[in-house]
């Protein structure tokens, strides 16, 4: 008997697929909804290969209320939602803002409406460290605690802040409405998980990030430079006030990030806290040059890069203070960025076409041998 059943929106995407895996490995059943805009259905097969369990999958758009409603109706066992589905390219969000507000904010409202209709009352939401914007504008906010004032510097970040507010208002309203009706008032709960820089792949080498277009994040781009698909990495600015002039980020292995979702969901179910925000990061900041060095070491040669102008909206330092999640959720990162580089390279080197190719047979054999 499952511990619970979780609807995972965006569950074939990068973080969603790893969180689905973590849920299945920890006794939950999972129903995925994804429109495959930036992912592949093959992720479901890989999840099954690793966990021995297959999540239910529905190809549907979260902005389509009738389709989403039908998924909830088909799975009355769903008791919680982990919500990843979104558009996430910072640069693009400034070019087509209405599309970002429609999908990210509109889609979240549709989801919350369906949850209310089907009496599903726990939501874990993929927020982002981008909600803080340039935390160096406020003294004493690096590493960034949750109490750091919100101040996103781009449209994507503003959609995340809006969704955080929509979830907060909805949870509080539902709690008040229940109280006024003389019913238990702690049913509705929300976790706002502000992630720092997710990276890495599954150590088996058969599951990783496989975006449909050009990746925007540093490590996947470095992977493409290492395989020769791109000739060099563009470094956006080396005149920041860091030790080597490049921007500082907090890299978190996707396996640690996935277990953070599990910890947050369990916390909501056990403690019924209402809405709470937690940073999910390692607390360790690394510059772009340090990351190039770390990944080059794993690949075994220096990877070419070129320094270009700063990118608009980029900030100097996004390093998490993860103390609250460490204490309240009993969660801490276990893997290092060196682990992430190792795992990413194993994935990229052996699966240059991502999910559009079969993984090496020896990797599947190793997985089976591990299970036997
Ligand atoms: N990767 C990061 O660096 C990062 C950092 C902070 C927050 N986040 C957030 O985490 C979440 C997951 O990010 P990811 O890196 O796994 O991205 P991803 O693109 O791999 O995953 C998002 C998934 O949502 C799906 N999707 C998009 N629009 C949809 C729609 N209208 N209906 C149904 N499905 C839809 C995509 O097909 C994809 O599978 C996003 O909300 C993102 O904003 C990501």
From TrEMBL:
Residues 6-281 form the NAD-dependent epimerase/dehydratase domain. Its EC number is 5.1.3.2. InterPro entries: Epimerase_deHydtase, NAD(P)-bd_dom_sf, UDP_G4E. Its cofactor is NAD(+). GO terms for cellular component: cytosol. The keyword NAD applies. Mutarotase converts alpha-aldose to the beta-anomer. It is active on D-glucose, L-arabinose, D-xylose, D-galactose, maltose and lactose. Homodimer. This is UDP-glucose 4-epimerase. It comes from Immersiella caudata.
């Amino acid at each position: 008997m499952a511990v619970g059943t979780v609807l995972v929106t965006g569950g074939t995407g990068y973080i969603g697929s790893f969180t689905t895996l973590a849920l299945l490995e920890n006794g939950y059943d999972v129903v995925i909804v994804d429109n495959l805009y930036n992912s592949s259905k093959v992720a479901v097969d890989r999840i099954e290969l690793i966990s021995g369990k297959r999540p239910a999958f529905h190809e549907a758009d979260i902005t389509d209320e009738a389709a989403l409603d039908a998924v909830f109706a088909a799975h009355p066992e769903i008791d919680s939602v982990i919500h990843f589905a979104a558009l996430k390219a910072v640069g693009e969000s400034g070019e087509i803002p209405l599309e970002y507000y429609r999908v990210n904010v509109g889609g979240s409202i549709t989801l919350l409406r369906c949850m209310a209709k089907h009496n599903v009352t726990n939501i874990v939401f993929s927020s982002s460290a981008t909600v803080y914007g340039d935390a160096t504008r406020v003294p004493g906010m690096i590493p960034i605690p949750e109490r750091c004032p919100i101040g996103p510097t781009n449209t994507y970040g503003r959609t995340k802040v809006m969704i955080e507010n929509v979830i907060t208002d909805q949870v509080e309203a539902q709690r008040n409405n229940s109280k006024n009706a003389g019913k238990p008032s702690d049913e509705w709960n929300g976790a706002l998980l502000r992630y720092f820089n997710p990276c890495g792949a599954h150590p088996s080498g058969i599951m990783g990030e496989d975006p449909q277009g050009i990746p925007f994040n540093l490590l996947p781009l470095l992977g493409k430079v290492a395989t020769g698909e791109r000739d060099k990495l563009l470094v956006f600015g080396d005149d920041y006030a860091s030790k080597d002039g490049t921007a500082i980020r907090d890299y978190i292995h996707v396996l640690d990030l996935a277990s953070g979702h599990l910890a947050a969901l369990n916390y909501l179910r056990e403690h019924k806290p209402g809405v709470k925000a937690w940073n999910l990061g390692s607390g360790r900041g690394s510059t772009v040059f340090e990351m190039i060095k770390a990944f080059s070491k794993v690949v075994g040669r220096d990877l070419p890069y070129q320094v270009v102008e700063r990118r608009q909206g980029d900030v100097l330092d996004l390093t998490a203070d993860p103390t609250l999640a460490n204490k309240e959720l009993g969660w801490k990162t276990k893997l290092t960025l060196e682990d992430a580089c190792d795992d990413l390279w194993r994935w990229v080197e052996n699966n240059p076409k991502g999910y559009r190719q079969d993984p090496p047979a020896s990797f599947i054999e190793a997985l089976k041998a591990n299970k036997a």
